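Subgroup meeting minutes
Present: P.N., E.W., G.H.
Scribe: E.W.

1. P.N. recapped why we're keeping a running log of single-chain structure predictions: easier to compare across weeks, and new members can see raw inputs and outputs side by side.
2. G.H. added today's entry (310 aa).
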Amino acid sequence: MSKRVLVTGGAGFVGSHLCDRLIRDGHTVTCLDNLFTGAKENIAHLIGQPGFTFIEADVQVPFTGEYDWIFNLACPASPPHYQHDPVETVRTNVLGMMNCLDLARKNGARVLQASTSEVYGDPLMHPQTESYWGNVNPISRRACYDEGKRCAETLCFDYHREYGVDIRVIRIFNTYGPRMAKDDGRVVSNFILQALRGEDITIYGDGSYTRSFQFVDDLVEGMIRMITQDGFTGPVNIGNPGEFTILELAQIVVEMTGSSSKIIYLPAVEHDPKQRQADITLAKEKLAWEPKIPLREGLEKTIDYFRKIV
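Output recorded in log:
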């Protein structure tokens, strides 16, 4: 059945892929984005299509409309962007979440919060399960994002308990794919761009830190399964449990691009998590979801995208 859907942050990397999927599935989609990190180019192919509307607006300002589903993806997700104005990042997380929840309460809508694996901080449990409360420094430069997302989860569950708002919370692990911003500072896009330009590939630390990388199409599939799942609020991890060191990723990118880039090492970034791996047992059980796209296949598509824009 066709739904009326609002996607905040819908012109961003993940949001635009979600809008594509929702339109393809026959839903009516409103994309709300202030274009701070999103880009009209990401949704240019959707503008003018029946069933798609773009609104340039800030999620911090209350908005109206009648929707069945609300996906809240509005927040800068890379350290250079969310640390650019940390107060705005907190406001986006907290006020934006409240505005989405208030509208969902008014409409009787189901709201999905795109939370993050960053709620686990620099984890003392490995891999990370949803029952782990995390290890976050609340006064670090990363805290505007980490604690902002943690507060947004708190708001979801308080609105659910107090007002009966129909919530869904997913915790997204490192995601990559076409339409990543060139300047977002994420490790996959950094390495690919440096390799394609023949620049030194910069690793912060000794390269032993680990991450799990999921392709954006797998994430979108998880989001759709979560929004359509009755009786399950989450939180639930949506990520690829395959764990790679940062050095392994750099070596794979150099190989796949045929680059002559050299790998160099710089001092580690303060409070950068040393290990990050998704435990997706709950997602398998509740959503019958697991990622399908291996790292090399996803990287090939991402490298092809960046070759066209470099």
